[in-house]
Write a structure and sequence with these properties.
The protein is α/β, with parallel strands linked by helices and about 325 residues long. The protein has helices at about 20-35, 55-65, 80-95, 115-120, 140-155, 170-180, 190-195, 220-230, 235-265, 270-305, 315-320, and strands spanning about 5-15, 45-50, 70-75, 100, 125-130, 165-170, 200-205, 310-315. The protein has 2 domains: about 5-220 and about 310-320, Spore Coat Polysaccharide Biosynthesis Protein SpsA, Chain A (Alpha-Beta Complex); about 235-305. It contains 11 helices and 8 strands. Strands 7-5-6-4-1-2-3-8 form an 8-stranded mixed beta sheet, sandwiched between helices. Helix 1 (about 20-35) links the parallel strand 1 (about 5-15) and strand 2 (about 45-50). The radius of gyration is 25 Å and the shape is elongated. The two termini are about 25 Å apart.
C-alpha cells in the first residue's frame, strides 16, 4: 500500500454553477491539508464531470482547472444522468489515480469524512462507504421513503449498504475489476458490493445543500428506485407468480359461491361482487404485464450495448 496515494475526487455536475465556487474553495483547502500532512500525493486532483449542463457549469470548470492545478474536468457529449456521469468520471480517474472518492457537488457530503476514508484505505480496505449517521435534516416524507427503499431492497435480496448513496472511496484495483461490469442500466450503490474485496464504512452527518435545487425531485427518485429494484432482483416476477396462485385459490372460492347462488336462484344479487372481481383481476393482469414489460425493456437496452457515456473533452489529457 502506498504511503502517499494519488487521490482523485470525482464529482458529477449538472447545472451546478451556483455551488461550484464554494465547492472548489472548500475542496482546495481540504486537498492542500491532505497533501501537507502527507496523506496523499501532490499529484492528487479533484475531477469535475460535466453531465451535459445547460448553464455555465462547463465554462466554470474549465476556468477553475486553468487557474488551479488541483482541479481538472471532463465533459460528456450530452446529458446522460447522474449514474452514467459518475461512472464516466470513475473510469477516467482510475487511469491517473491509486484511489478515487466520489461525492456530490452540492456540499451535502461531509468532506471531513475523506480523512477517515483514507485511513481505512491505508489499513487495507479497498472500498469505504460513506454512510449517513442520521436523517434529522430530512423531511418526514423524505426520511420515510428513503429508509423504506433500503429496507425494501434488502427484502428483495439486494446487497445494498443501508443509508449509503454514492459517497465512497474505491481503490484502483476495485475500479479495474468494476470496468468488467457492462450493465447499461446502472445502479452503482448496488453494483459495488458485488465486486467484493475488503470493505468498511465511515459515518457522517449529511449537510444541507449549499445552493441551487436538488437534481433528484420525487419523479427522478422514484425512477431511480425502480431502476435499482428491476436491475438487481427478479423477486417482483416471483411475486407475480405467487399472486397468481393466490388469485387462483380465490377463484375456487368464487366458483363455489357462484354455484351456491345459482342453485338457490339468487344469481342477480351477485352482480356487484362479480363486477368488482373482474375489475380487480384485470388490474392485477395489467400491473403484471407492466412489470414483465419493464424487465423485457431492460433486456432490450442491455442487448443493444450502446455506450453508457461519451467524453467529448478531457482537460487532464489536454493539459499534458
Amino acid at each position: 500500500m502506498k504511503e502517499k496515494p494519488i487521490l482523485y475526487v470525482v464529482i458529477p455536475c449538472y447545472n451546478e454553477e451556483e455551488v461550484l465556487a464554494e465547492t472548489t474553495k472548500q475542496l482546495k483547502v481540504k486537498m492542500q491539508k491532505l497533501i501537507k500532512d502527507k496523506n496523499i500525493s501532490e499529484k492528487s486532483k479533484v475531477m469535475y464531470v460535466n453531465d451535459g449542463s445547460k448553464d455555465k457549469t462547463w465554462e466554470i470548470i474549465k476556468d477553475i482547472a486553468a487557474k488551479e492545478k488541483l482541479f481538472t474536468g471532463i465533459t460528456l457529449s450530452r446529458n446522460r444522468g447522474h449514474q452514467n456521469a459518475l461512472l464516466g468520471g470513475l473510469m477516467t480517474a482510475k487511469n491517473y489515480a491509486d484511489v478515487v472518492i466520489s461525492m456530490d457537488a452540492d456540499l451535502q457530503d461531509d468532506i471531513n469524512a475523506i480523512d477517515e476514508m483514507l485511513k481505512k484505505y491505508k489499513d487495507g480496505c479497498e472500498i469505504v462507504y460513506g454512510v449517513r449517521s442520521a436523517r434529522k435534516k430530512d423531511t418526514f416524507f423524505k426520511r420515510f421513503t428513503a429508509e423504506g427503499f433500503y429496507k425494501f431492497m434488502k427484502f428483495l435480496g439486494v446487497d445494498c449498504v443501508y443509508n449509503h448513496a454514492d459517497y465512497r472511496l474505491t481503490s484502483k484495483k476495485v475500479l479495474e475489476e468494476f470496468a468488467n461490469f457492462k450493465e447499461v442500466n446502472l445502479f452503482l450503490r448496488g453494483m459495488f458490493p458485488l465486486v467484493g474485496f475488503k470493505t468498511d464504512v465511515v459515518y457522517y452527518e449529511r449537510n444541507e445543500r449549499f445552493a441551487g435545487e436538488s437534481k433528484y425531485p420525487l419523479k427522478k427518485m422514484l425512477n431511480f428506485a425502480w431502476d435499482g429494484i428491476t436491475s438487481f432482483s427478479v423477486k417482483p416476477l416471483r411475486l407475480i407468480c405467487t399472486l397468481g396462485f393466490i388469485i387462483l385459490l380465490i377463484s375456487f372460492g368464487i366458483m363455489i359461491y357462484s354455484l351456491v347462488r345459482k342453485l338457490t336462484g339468487n344469481t342477480v344479487s351477485g352482480w356487484t361482487f362479480l363486477s368488482i372481481s373482474i375489475w380487480f383481476i384485470g388490474a392485477i393482469q395489467m400491473i403484471s404485464i407492466g412489470i414483465i414489460g419493464e424487465y423485457v425493456g431492460k433486456m432490450y437496452s442491455e442487448t443493444k450495448s450502446r455506450p453508457r457515456y461519451i467524453i467529448s473533452e478531457n482537460l487532464e489529457e489536454k493539459n499534458k
